[in-house]
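Per reviewer request, we include the raw input and output of the structure prediction for the construct analysed in the revised manuscript.
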Amino acid sequence: MRRDSIFYKLFQQSPSLLFELLTNPPENAAEYIFDSVAVKEPKFEIDGVFLPPQTQNPGVVYFAEVQFQRDEKLYERVFAESYLYFYRNRDRFSDLQIVMIYPSRSTEQSEIHPFRNQLNGDQVHRIYLDELGDIRSLPVWVALMALTTLEEERTTEEARYLLARSQQEVPQSENRAIIDLLTTIMVYKFERKSQREVEEMLGITLQETRVYREILAEGEQRGEQRGEQREKSLILRLLTRKVGKLPKKVSQRVESLSLEQFENLGEALLDFTSMADLDAWLSGLDGNF
């Protein structure tokens, strides 16, 4: 997963987060909507656009670009896309602002002279995450952004700190979103570790993750029986998401497992990546098929 996609998930969850990075945010920051837009002729895809509320008075549109790898023509593209979109929608907006988010100054393109007026004016804001200050002194959502820039040896400690802090400072609904984003960031940072290993690093359980909650909600909506059958159904759904649709013979084999074996399977499947992993696990049981 690209790191910029993590940031756009953050913006989707909390659009006002962008304005916490700015010195002079708009007074109606909480009313902005985060979106991605397409500009035709030529075709541009702008991933991060913050749209003001639609009122009789045109508002200011904000464009956000997250860049973790150097692109020597980044400003050429960003300015072309932003101003073209502004031109095509001139009646909707009174002004435009552009926010560039980098992990550090070293990621910024080297040739910036042609854009000196824009970069030295008050319309373009360059944010360097490693210069925001101590991660523990930042607001939780901003700290999540800074977490992506830390070295691996610091990431786990700071992630656990942010998790504990979020449980005290933010509503439960937002805390669940933070758990999901922290897990996503950790999986990105530690690509060689399984999801279960990442969850153990954070000190969270399967029951706290988004996938588990989604499947549990589906089961409740469909009125599935409680107890043993509900647990088996849940694990089967998780298994299908991990390895795909089960062949009939394999499905029958799995459904014949005891409750204890199902529970063991629920733990083991977190490390599965293919049907071969399930076959190998089943072969390890007594009465191999």
